[in-house]
Amino acid sequence: MFFKRYYGYVMGISLSYVKNQDLAYEITNDSFLKCFDSFQKMEENLQVKPWLRRITVNTAIDYYRKNKRFQNHLEADGELPVFDEVYAPDQMAYEDLLKILRQLPEDLQLVFNLYEVEGYSHREVAHRLNITESSSRVYLTRAKSKLRQLIHIHLKEYAGR
Questions:
Q1: Close Cβ partners of 152 (under 8 Å, ≥ 6 residues apart)
Q2: Quick check: 64 and 110 in contact, CB under 8 A?
Q3: pLDDT for residue 114
Q4: Looking at residue 15, what is its pLDDT?
Q5: Rounded to 5 degrees, what are φ and ψ at 131?
Q6: 36, 67, 98 — which closes off a domain?
Q7: Which single residue of 118, 139, 148, 158 could bond 111 by disulfide (Cβ 3.0 to 4.6 Å)?
Q8: Nearest to residue 14, comparing CAs of 117, 144, 148, 138?
Q9: Tens digit of pLDDT for each residue in 60-83?
Q10: What is the domain range of residue 27?
Q11: Which residues of the chain have pLDDT under 70?
Protein backbone atom coordinates (compact mmCIF):
# COMPACT_ATOMS: atom_id res chain seq x y z
CA MET A 1 0.00 0.00 0.00
CA PHE A 2 2.80 2.42 0.92
CA PHE A 3 4.57 1.82 -2.38
CA LYS A 4 1.43 2.38 -4.47
CA ARG A 5 0.53 5.49 -2.53
CA TYR A 6 3.84 7.31 -3.03
CA TYR A 7 5.21 5.82 -6.25
CA GLY A 8 3.93 8.65 -8.49
CA TYR A 9 5.28 11.25 -6.10
CA VAL A 10 8.77 9.74 -6.00
CA MET A 11 8.78 9.08 -9.76
CA GLY A 12 7.88 12.73 -10.40
CA ILE A 13 10.82 13.89 -8.32
CA SER A 14 13.13 11.43 -10.09
CA LEU A 15 11.98 12.64 -13.51
CA SER A 16 12.87 16.20 -12.56
CA TYR A 17 16.51 15.13 -12.14
CA VAL A 18 17.06 12.92 -15.19
CA LYS A 19 16.08 13.04 -18.84
CA ASN A 20 15.64 9.34 -19.33
CA GLN A 21 12.62 7.51 -17.91
CA ASP A 22 14.64 4.33 -17.34
CA LEU A 23 17.06 6.24 -15.13
CA ALA A 24 14.12 7.78 -13.28
CA TYR A 25 12.78 4.25 -12.61
CA GLU A 26 16.22 3.27 -11.30
CA ILE A 27 16.39 6.29 -8.98
CA THR A 28 12.80 5.68 -7.84
CA ASN A 29 13.46 2.04 -7.07
CA ASP A 30 16.71 2.84 -5.26
CA SER A 31 14.89 5.51 -3.27
CA PHE A 32 12.26 3.04 -2.12
CA LEU A 33 14.94 0.50 -1.21
CA LYS A 34 16.67 3.14 0.94
CA CYS A 35 13.30 4.10 2.39
CA PHE A 36 12.45 0.53 3.37
CA ASP A 37 15.93 -0.03 4.79
CA SER A 38 15.55 2.95 7.13
CA PHE A 39 11.86 2.52 7.88
CA GLN A 40 12.54 1.30 11.43
CA LYS A 41 14.59 4.43 12.15
CA MET A 42 11.80 6.74 11.03
CA GLU A 43 10.36 8.81 13.85
CA GLU A 44 6.72 8.24 14.59
CA ASN A 45 5.61 11.84 13.98
CA LEU A 46 7.80 12.39 10.89
CA GLN A 47 5.92 13.41 7.75
CA VAL A 48 6.40 10.90 4.96
CA LYS A 49 6.43 13.13 1.85
CA PRO A 50 9.31 15.43 2.88
CA TRP A 51 11.24 12.39 4.08
CA LEU A 52 10.71 10.61 0.75
CA ARG A 53 11.65 13.78 -1.15
CA ARG A 54 14.94 14.03 0.75
CA ILE A 55 15.75 10.37 0.10
CA THR A 56 14.92 10.71 -3.60
CA VAL A 57 16.97 13.88 -4.07
CA ASN A 58 19.92 12.30 -2.29
CA THR A 59 19.58 9.19 -4.45
CA ALA A 60 19.62 11.34 -7.60
CA ILE A 61 22.74 13.12 -6.32
CA ASP A 62 24.37 9.75 -5.60
CA TYR A 63 23.57 8.67 -9.15
CA TYR A 64 25.36 11.75 -10.55
CA ARG A 65 28.34 11.29 -8.26
CA LYS A 66 28.64 7.67 -9.29
CA ASN A 67 28.71 8.68 -12.94
CA LYS A 68 31.05 11.65 -12.33
CA ARG A 69 29.14 14.03 -14.57
CA PHE A 70 30.98 17.09 -13.28
CA GLN A 71 34.55 16.01 -13.93
CA ASN A 72 34.45 16.54 -17.70
CA HIS A 73 32.07 19.49 -17.93
CA LEU A 74 32.38 21.39 -21.19
CA GLU A 75 32.47 25.18 -21.21
CA ALA A 76 29.48 27.06 -22.58
CA ASP A 77 29.87 28.10 -26.20
CA GLY A 78 29.30 31.84 -26.21
CA GLU A 79 26.53 34.04 -24.94
CA LEU A 80 22.91 33.07 -25.16
CA PRO A 81 20.25 35.57 -26.22
CA VAL A 82 18.45 37.38 -23.44
CA PHE A 83 14.72 36.74 -23.11
CA ASP A 84 12.69 39.57 -21.67
CA GLU A 85 9.20 38.14 -21.29
CA VAL A 86 9.29 37.78 -17.53
CA TYR A 87 6.00 35.92 -17.10
CA ALA A 88 6.39 33.41 -19.95
CA PRO A 89 6.67 30.33 -17.67
CA ASP A 90 3.32 31.25 -16.05
CA GLN A 91 1.67 30.91 -19.45
CA MET A 92 3.17 27.51 -20.25
CA ALA A 93 1.79 24.08 -19.44
CA TYR A 94 3.52 22.08 -16.72
CA GLU A 95 4.44 19.35 -19.21
CA ASP A 96 6.06 21.94 -21.50
CA LEU A 97 8.16 23.26 -18.62
CA LEU A 98 9.33 19.76 -17.71
CA LYS A 99 10.16 19.08 -21.34
CA ILE A 100 12.24 22.25 -21.49
CA LEU A 101 14.00 21.48 -18.19
CA ARG A 102 14.96 18.05 -19.53
CA GLN A 103 16.71 19.72 -22.46
CA LEU A 104 19.31 21.21 -20.11
CA PRO A 105 22.65 19.41 -19.84
CA GLU A 106 22.47 17.04 -16.86
CA ASP A 107 24.86 18.98 -14.64
CA LEU A 108 23.02 22.27 -15.20
CA GLN A 109 19.67 20.58 -14.61
CA LEU A 110 20.89 19.08 -11.34
CA VAL A 111 22.24 22.37 -9.98
CA PHE A 112 19.08 24.21 -11.10
CA ASN A 113 16.83 21.67 -9.35
CA LEU A 114 18.88 21.63 -6.15
CA TYR A 115 19.09 25.41 -5.90
CA GLU A 116 15.77 26.62 -7.32
CA VAL A 117 13.43 23.72 -6.60
CA GLU A 118 14.84 22.12 -3.46
CA GLY A 119 16.10 25.38 -1.93
CA TYR A 120 19.70 24.37 -1.23
CA SER A 121 22.26 27.17 -0.91
CA HIS A 122 25.25 27.30 -3.26
CA ARG A 123 27.41 26.10 -0.39
CA GLU A 124 25.16 23.05 0.13
CA VAL A 125 24.99 22.32 -3.62
CA ALA A 126 28.77 22.55 -3.88
CA HIS A 127 29.28 20.28 -0.88
CA ARG A 128 26.82 17.64 -2.13
CA LEU A 129 28.24 17.59 -5.67
CA ASN A 130 31.91 17.97 -4.77
CA ILE A 131 32.31 21.18 -6.76
CA THR A 132 33.21 24.72 -5.70
CA GLU A 133 30.60 27.30 -4.71
CA SER A 134 31.61 29.44 -7.67
CA SER A 135 31.04 26.47 -9.99
CA SER A 136 27.57 26.05 -8.52
CA ARG A 137 26.84 29.73 -9.25
CA VAL A 138 28.21 29.42 -12.79
CA TYR A 139 26.16 26.28 -13.49
CA LEU A 140 23.01 27.99 -12.18
CA THR A 141 23.64 31.09 -14.28
CA ARG A 142 24.19 28.94 -17.37
CA ALA A 143 21.08 26.90 -16.62
CA LYS A 144 18.93 30.02 -16.33
CA SER A 145 20.39 31.49 -19.48
CA LYS A 146 19.80 28.27 -21.40
CA LEU A 147 16.26 28.06 -20.02
CA ARG A 148 15.54 31.59 -21.24
CA GLN A 149 16.73 30.58 -24.69
CA LEU A 150 14.68 27.37 -24.69
CA ILE A 151 11.54 29.14 -23.45
CA HIS A 152 11.97 31.79 -26.12
CA ILE A 153 12.26 29.10 -28.81
CA HIS A 154 9.25 27.24 -27.40
CA LEU A 155 7.09 30.37 -27.34
CA LYS A 156 8.08 31.24 -30.92
CA GLU A 157 7.10 27.73 -32.05
CA TYR A 158 3.87 27.87 -30.06
CA ALA A 159 2.92 31.29 -31.46
CA GLY A 160 3.44 29.96 -34.99
CA ARG A 161 0.77 27.27 -34.58
A1: 81, 83, 85, 88
A2: yes
A3: 93
A4: 86
A5: -130, 175
A6: 67
A7: 139
A8: 117
A9: 888 888 876 555 554 444 444 444
A10: 2-67
A11: 43, 45, 68-92, 158-161
Report the mean per-residue pLDDT for the chain.
Answer: 80
- Kindly give, in sequence order, each residue whose CB lies less than 8 Å from that of residue 142, ignoring residues fewer than 6 positions away: 76, 108
E strand or H helix at 138? helix 133-159
At 161 the pLDDT is: 55
Residue 9 CA neighbour count, 13 Å, CB half: 16
pLDDT for 40? 73
Euclidean distance between the first and final Cα of the chain, in Å? Answer: 44
Verify that 150 and 98 share a domain, yes or no.
Answer: yes
Distance CA 15, CA 57 (A): 11
Count: domains in the chain: 2
User: 122 with 137: CB under 8 angstroms?
Assistant: yes
Which of 67, 99, 117 is the C-terminal boundary of a domain? Answer: 67
Residues 154 and 99 in one domain: yes
In a domain, 23, yes or no: yes
Residue 43: CATH number of its domain: 1.10.1740.10
